[in-house]
Amino acid sequence: MEIRTLESREREAVLELLDAWELPDGWRGRDFFRRYMEDDPSFRDENFWVAAEGARLVSCVQIFPRRLRLNGGEVGLGGIGSVFTHPEGRGSGAASAVLRAAEDDMRGRGLALGLLFTGRIPFYERLGWIAWPFSNALYIAQEADAGAAAEGVELDAFDLARDLADVCDLHAGYSAERSGSVVRDDAAWEGNLKVAGNPDEDFRVARRDGEVVAYARFIALEGHPILAEFGRGPRDEDALAALLSRALAERGGGYGPAPADASLEAGLLAHGVEVRPMGDPNTMLRCLDAEALLAAAGAERAEGESEADLLRRVLPPERALFWPADRF
Ligand SMILES: CC(C)(COP(=O)(O)OP(=O)(O)OC[C@H]1O[C@@H](n2cnc3c(N)ncnc32)[C@H](O)[C@@H]1OP(=O)(O)O)[C@@H](O)C(=O)NCCC(=O)NCCS
């Protein structure tokens, strides 16, 4: 078995391999994963590691390079996704070998941290990954009149042409204070708007004097409403609480990152939305380069510290978040 990166003539072949993955929400594997090939500006053939038996692709792993906010700075992140072995090739070490190769590659590229989402925690734990229960919450909307608009605030649907620049500014400002969120430039935003939905998203804004002061994005996963991202201006707690509570009431609640600011939680409660903490059970991290991670976090090495303790020190799960809109 040969472990190597994808050749450009093999793009359809790797999508054909991924087509054997039985996915929820009516997706064909090849259509679901094609979006990450055609719409994600970070896509490169070299980001796909594969195991091949002759001309046949047996297993694959895809690297999603990102910049992650960390203690006011940034760190290179290697997102791992599209991990799949053909059913006939399983249990002989193919995925483990391909993942190892992808990890070495990421390390070599200066991506200090690995991150993935999975329902198979023990498989990755055996390979050195650590479950990372980012602080999520269940949002329970109890009152039918939740979300009466704040004074002078208009709740509306997101309008790409009109609102994108305002939303980008709000995202950069609000997420800047949050370790774990992904930095997006214009190209990343363009790609994100294409791939974040499942396949669509419910993207809402709150405007004051025509300007967007808060926004919220929802997606449905297997019928469950997921709060994929939100943000607000520095003095717009009321607008965000009104926007979220209206949307949550209409959607029958939601699950997503917990509010990091106490004022948002109080505002939601005032609108009849209860926030129940519930750790994220699917996210895993791996320290790929301790020195680079420490440098990015502006932290000193501690004698005898384990990889897990180092990660806990620089990216404590209870104080960090990863917006579901950035999932891969
Ligand atoms: C998860 C998945 C990628 C694993 O692929 P794989 O190629 O079978 O993985 P490996 O062979 O490296 O490891 C599988 C198991 O075989 C074991 N194994 C590895 N090499 C082995 C060998 N030479 N002999 C016997 N067993 C071996 C591993 O320890 C592992 O055990 P575990 O399942 O109890 O953890 C594959 O099952 C799959 O595609 N599943 C559907 C998609 C999916 O769930 N993707 C991951 C979600 S993020």
Explain what this protein looks like in three dimensions.
β9 and β10 form a beta hairpin. The longest helix is centred in the middle third of the chain and has 17 residues. This protein has ten helices and 14 strands. Helices cover 32% and strands 30% of the residues. The protein folds into two domains: 180 residues, 3-Layer(aba) Sandwich (Aminopeptidase); 142 residues, Gcn5-related N-acetyltransferase (GNAT) (Aminopeptidase), CATH 3.40.630.30. The strands form three sheets. The chain has a seven-stranded mixed beta sheet, sandwiched between helices. Strands 8-9-10-11 form a four-stranded antiparallel beta sheet. The protein has a three-stranded antiparallel beta sheet with strand order 12-7-13. The chain has 328 residues and is of the alpha+beta class. α7 crosses α8. It is globular, with a radius of gyration of 20 Å. Coenzyme A (COA) binds next to β4, α3 and α4.
List the helices and strands and how they pair.
Layout lengths: L1 E4 L5 H8 L10 H10 L9 E6 L2 E15 L2 E13 L8 H15 L4 E5 L3 H5 L4 E2 L4 E6 L11 E5 L2 H17 L9 H10 L6 E7 L2 E11 L2 E9 L4 H15 L2 E4 L4 H9 L2 E5 L5 E5 L2 H8 L9 H8 L14
Parallel strand pairs: 4-5
Antiparallel strand pairs: 1-2, 2-3, 3-4, 5-14, 6-14, 7-12, 7-13, 8-9, 9-10, 10-11
Helix pairs in contact: 1-2, 7-8
The chain binds coenzyme A.
Coenzyme A (COA) binds next to strand 4, helix 3 and helix 4.
